[in-house]
Amino acid sequence: MSRHTAYSDFEVKIGKRTASWGEVRITYTIAAGRPARTWANASDGNYYPEEGPDVQVEKVEYRFGSSDLAPWVTDESDLFDDIDTDWLLEQAAEDAA
Length: 97
Known about the structure:
Layout: E1 2-14, E2 17-31, E3 54-64, E4 73-74, H1 85-96
Antiparallel strand pairs: 1-2, 2-3, 3-4
């Protein structure tokens, strides 16, 4: 299991105007998946399909504005609950490169 942090910018718009902006910091872990076991490689008869990596979001924080001095606020609402795990996996791959 490995721990990663991803960052993304966001904007709050009212109509066509940007009312506010900021940055989101997502801390998450990735557990490796497992390969499939088929009749060709499972001598014990224990078959199962391939499973991809498991991504668990640990914490989502945000701050408004572009200053590094702005405090991070932990998101305790469901505002950022729908996070694309494929994007998180891409961020982890970019960090590893």
